[in-house]
Each structure stands twice: as structure tokens, then as C-alpha cells.
Design goal:
The protein has 16 helices and twelve strands. By secondary structure, the chain is α/β, with parallel strands linked by helices. It has a nine-stranded mixed sheet with strand order 1-2-6-5-4-3-7-8-9, sandwiched between helices. Helix 10 crosses helix 11.
């Protein structure tokens, strides 16, 4: 690694110096990070947004950032640091107002050869939402796109898995350092992406995830992609931040609608009201953006929902309970009993059998949802 890239790594890892200030500093010193590191205190204080605290951090950077340790961790984790001046840096990301000056990267993909689409959504999806995220990801990956998401639980994880299972490309953008597994339940997925895809982070090794890092992660997800697909989001979900970043950057925002009585779709419906493009399948996205290359897979629409046939080995009560849950509804046991017109004790017994047959799932909030 040359001196310029080392200087950029130091600047990127300093506390209290955000992307906006970093880009202003580089602009004031001809884009040369070495000049920023060598500048005197008075010269630094002339840059907009640089006060005594930031100037002091820059001048005493060795107290805040251990460059030798960071270089050692890069080697240990078989990772690299891509600066905005390098060829492997995502081209679209350079165009946003406050791009990261560098990205930590680990994996096997070459970013400059790919077209990126983000799939994002709630961390607490319905089974329907997980299934759709996986199917969108698989079909878009099969059509030649690289699926990008935030490696969070829920919709993000389903999107990464869908792309990987289809043999396609996927990039996970972290809200923490490359060596921090968050959430821990995604450890196996991290390893899968490291070996077959790519993981990116603008944060140095050891940086944990917090309320500040997640919005920064979301702007990278939106910034590197030509479009964002939102699959299930509450009215205050983080995926709405990603969608807002995408809209501000002139990228297309696609939204999968959900049930009007599901809180996990409230944010999606708000985005549609605000002008996002409603989509019901991956073909809608491909029709808007165009296919990648000439060897695009032929994608077929699938018909689901109310026309699904019930399994043959169900009792009468089980069939009525399962039918009450059709169409993706998520209901309490009492609501199922009302829909099925059965006593609640019979519904409870039927629900237990349906869970054993893996036809119904009980959510953490006590409500039930039909699988498949």
C-alpha cells in the first residue's frame, strides 16, 4: 500500500471526522491525503467544518489510530482497503455528495464489472416478505445483477441467501468493522458471502455497530446501486432511510406492496404514495432497468395465494384453520378461531398439528402465519 492510501486509511479511521468534513479537507488540499496529514493547525482551521477538536485529532492522529495494527489486520483477514481513487471503488458511489474516502473489502468479486441493485426491508419480516425477498434476489441475480444489502437479519439476509442460492453475485455492506459479526446469528452467512461474494465497510477494524453507523451504511447501499427494491418496511424502518438516500441521489426506488393491515408494509405503502414504483415481480424491475448482457435467463411469473391447493392429509379443522391464514395474513389464535368459525380449543389443537407439519409458523409476538 502506497503512502497516499495509508494516509487515506488514517483519515478514514479518525474519530469525530465524518465523511463530509473529510471530503472538504481533501478538496482544500488538492485531493491529497498526505498534504492533509502534513498541514499545519492554522491551515486546517481554515477548512469549513474543521474546529479545534478536529484539528487536534488530525495533528495527533497517532493517539487515535494505530496504522501498523490496521495494516496487520488487513493482512490477517485477507482484506483490502479501496480508496475512491482506485479502480475497484464503485463508480456510482463516487457520485454522491459525501462518499466514503475508502472502503474495507473482503471477498472474491470485482466491483467494476458489476451492476448493482439493493434489496432492503424490515428486520422482522413475515414469511411472505422473506420469500419474496429471496425470489426477487434469485431472479435479479440470475438476470446478471449483483444484489446488495446490509447483512442485517430479516429481509437483508433473505436477499443475500436468495442471490447465493441462485449462484449469483451479492455484496453485503456493514454498519461495523469487517471483523465484527453483527448480528451474530448471521455468522454463517458472513462466511458464505466472504467465500462467494463481497463484504464492504467504511469502518475500521473493531468498530461496533451503533445508531450512527447504520444510516452511514444505508447511504453506501443506496449510493453504489442504480436502484433500490424495498420489501416490507414499517413506517419508521431503516430501509426508508435507504430509499430516501436513493431518491435524493436520483436512483430508482421500487416497492413491493403488502397487506394493508400489516404494520410491516406501512412504510412500503407510504413510499408508493410518495411516488416510488410499485412492483410485483423481478421482471417489473428488469423491464425498467434493462437486462444485463445477452445471456439473461428467461424469467417466469408464478401464481400464488388464494388458488393454492390444500394438502390432502389435513383434518377438517386443520383445513379450516389453514384457509383462515391464506393470503399472507398474520393472526392471533382468537382471530383464527373467528375466521374458521371454530372453538378456540379446537383451533389451538389444529394449530399445533399444522406447526408440526411445518404448514404454519408461530411468530415471536404470538401470532400465526401460513408457510409457503
Amino acid at each position: 500500500m502506497n503512502d497516499l492510501n495509508k494516509a487515506l486509511m488514517v483519515l478514514n479511521g479518525l474519530p469525530h471526522v465524518g465523511p463530509v468534513t473529510l471530503n472538504r479537507l481533501l478538496g482544500a488540499f488538492d485531493g491529497d491525503a498526505v498534504k492533509v496529514m502534513q498541514a499545519g493547525r492554522k491551515a486546517l482551521l481554515k477548512v469549513a467544518g474543521v474546529g479545534p477538536k478536529i484539528a487536534g485529532t488530525l495533528k495527533g492522529w497517532r493517539q487515535h489510530f494505530d496504522l501498523r495494527r490496521e495494516l496487520g489486520l488487513l493482512k490477517q483477514h485477507n482484506a483490502s482497503f479501496i480508496t475512491f481513487k482506485d479502480g475497484g471503488y464503485p463508480e456510482l458511489l463516487k457520485q454522491i455528495a459525501d462518499p466514503p474516502i475508502g472502503l474495507y473489502s473482503r471477498g472474491v468479486l470485482e466491483l467494476e464489472r458489476l451492476r448493482f441493485i439493493a434489496i432492503v426491508g424490515t428486520r422482522q419480516p413475515t414469511l411472505y416478505g422473506q420469500k419474496q425477498a429471496g425470489r426477487f434476489a434469485a431472479r435479479l441475480a440470475g438476470a446478471g445483477y449483483c444484489v446488495v444489502s446490509g447483512l442485517a437479519r430479516g429481509i437483508d439476509a433473505a436477499a443475500h441467501i436468495g442471490a447465493l442460492d441462485a449462484g449469483g453475485a451479492t455484496v453485503g455492506v456493514l454498519g461495523c468493522g469487517l471483523d465484527v459479526v453483527y448480528p451474530q446469528e448471521n455468522a454463517d452467512l458472513y462466511d458464505r458471502i466472504f467465500s462467494k461474494g463481497l463484504v464492504l465497510s467504511e469502518f475500521p477494524f473493531g468498530r461496533g455497530a451503533d445508531r450512527q453507523t447504520f444510516p452511514m451504511r444505508n447511504r453506501v447501499v443506496a449510493g453504489m446501486c442504480e436502484a433500490v427494491v424495498v420489501v416490507e418496511s414499517g413506517s419508521n424502518g431503516g430501509s426508508l432511510i435507504t430509499a430516501r438516500f436513493a431518491g435524493e441521489q436520483g436512483r430508482q426506488v421500487f416497492v413491493l406492496p403488502g397487506r394493508v393491515d400489516q404494520s410491516t408494509s406501512a412504510g412500503c405503502h407510504q413510499l408508493i404514495r410518495d411516488g416510488a414504483t410499485l412492483v410485483t415481480c423481478a421482471e417489473d424491475v428488469i423491464d425498467e432497468l434493462g437486462a444485463v448482457g445477452s445471456d439473461v435467463l428467461k424469467l417466469q411469473r408464478e401464481v400464488e395465494g388464494a388458488n393454492r391447493k390444500l394438502p390432502q392429509d389435513l383434518s377438517s379443522g386443520e383445513g379450516r384453520v389453514l384457509k383462515a391464514l391464506e393470503g399472507g395474513e398474520v393472526l392471533l389464535l382468537e382471530d383464527v378461531a373467528l375466521r374458521a368459525e371454530l372453538p378456540i380449543h379446537e383451533v389451538a389443537a389444529s394449530m399445533m398439528m399444522l406447526e408440526l407439519k411445518r404448514l404454519v409458523a408461530k411468530r415471536a409476538d404470538g401470532r400465526f402465519e401460513r408457510r409457503g
